[in-house]
Design a protein that fits this description.
3-stranded antiparallel beta sheet
Length: about 375
């Protein structure tokens, strides 16, 4: 029995909409989680993030354990109090960042040893330590098992080694996590782009038993089409009565195509990263506010989205802010992009509930200039 009930209210093909009920509030699915890497969704206050309609945000174990340290966050009341966010928080395990950011990482059966990308300090992150940081020190609501995510493309033998290690680490994570009535633990499916490895990974995770299941090892360079090919079979391998979380994804079209294949939850740095570089996401695709064509465009980004950044400021003003390198431009575009991603998931929830998701999907692809 999971600590968090997951109630699916409607299905349309493989797409589904529902609610994951947590101790800190309901998470409506499909859900997009803004990424608050270092206890902040970059350039935004938590009130701005909440106003976009976000039910949950993501925090990062690797970054927080290095700075300000998980022990300090604990002394200051836990991550929710530290950053003034009272809704659910999901923390990732830190494994992906160790592999991608640390200066030197050495993976053994016991743990991964690495040097901080900040100052070269040495750390050891084991499944048990990751659980301690996330559940006990940061106090996150949804905790992720430690896993090994291999780079793409991966040789089959290398992908199998990482998948089996992740499965063993998943079992150790579950043992360390124990039974917690107000927190949940998600396992992570691995196996790169090999269907039989994905199946074996799912079987091993189900045998251990988790509150939810993530699809890891995607959005690591394989491209949209290859990702969709994996999603054609991988989500269905995971329990239908638990949430399915696609890690690190992605562009709006990625979300729509993944929901069509049965995925419920997403996170990505894209909305705020794009915003800091002058890009806005819209129903017609991304636009670059640096372009001269917006210099005298008096229309807002999207007057239908109930976010001041989307509806109250002209593209001409945003163009000016971006060209002048004013901080406000980064704030407003990041705010709009988070609001757009929340509007997208809300539109998908409505389309699934009303049995018109395929029509929504086709219209979205056409409007996004996806060919």
């Amino acid at each position: 029995m999971s600590a968090f009930p997951f109630e699916i209210s409607a299905r349309d093909g493989a797409a589904r909409t529902g609610v994951l009920k947590t101790a800190r509030g309901d998470i409506r699915t499909p859900a997009f989680m803004p990424v608050g890497t270092a206890a902040t969704v970059k350039a935004l206050t938590v009130d701005q993030v909440a106003a976009t309609g976000a039910d949950i945000i993501l925090g990062n174990t690797y970054h927080l354990m290095l700075r300000p340290t998980a022990e300090r966050v604990k002394r200051l009341g836990g991550l929710h109090r530290f950053m003034r966010w009272d809704k659910p928080i999901l923390t990732d395990s830190g494994g992906f960042q160790v592999m991608s950011l640390s200066k030197i990482a050495k993976v053994t059966e016991e743990a991964v040893a690495f040097q901080s990308h900040i100052d070269g300090s040495r750390y050891v992150l084991s499944p048990e330590r990751s659980i301690e940081i996330q559940a006990d020190l940061l106090g996150s609501d949804i905790v992720m098992q430690l896993d090994e995510c291999v780079a793409w493309p991966a040789e089959e033998n290398r992908a199998r080694e990482a998948m089996l290690l992740s499965a063993r680490w998943g079992a150790r994570s579950k043992a360390a996590f124990g039974e917690r009535p107000t927190q949940a633990l998600f396992g992570i499916q691995q196996g790169s782009t090999f269907e039989h490895l994905r199946r074996e990974s799912a079987e091993r995770l189900i045998e251990t038993g988790f509150d939810g299941y993530a699809l890891g090892g995607l959005a690591v360079g394989e491209g949209h089409e290859a990702m969709c090919e994996v999603l054609d079979y991988a989500p269905a391998m995971l329990p239908a009565d638990r949430p399915r979380y696609l890690m690190g994804v992605g562009k709006p079209i990625d979300l729509v195509e993944a929901v069509a294949r049965g995925v419920d939850m997403f996170d990505c740095v894209l909305p705020t990263r794009s915003g800091r570089h002058g890009q806005a996401w819209t129903w017609e695709g991304p636009i670059n506010l640096k372009n001269a064509r917006f210099a005298e465009d008096d229309s807002p980004l999207d007057e239908t989205i109930a976010c001041p950044a989307s509806s109250h400021y002209s593209k001409a003003y945003l163009h000016h802010l971006v060209k002048a390198e004013e901080i406000l431009g980064q704030v407003l575009l990041s705010w709009h992009n988070i609001a757009f991603f929340q509007a997208l998931t809300a539109a998908m929830r409505a389309a699934i509930a009303e049995g018109r998701f395929e029509a929504f999907r086709a219209d979205f692809k056409a409007r996004q200039r996806i060919r």
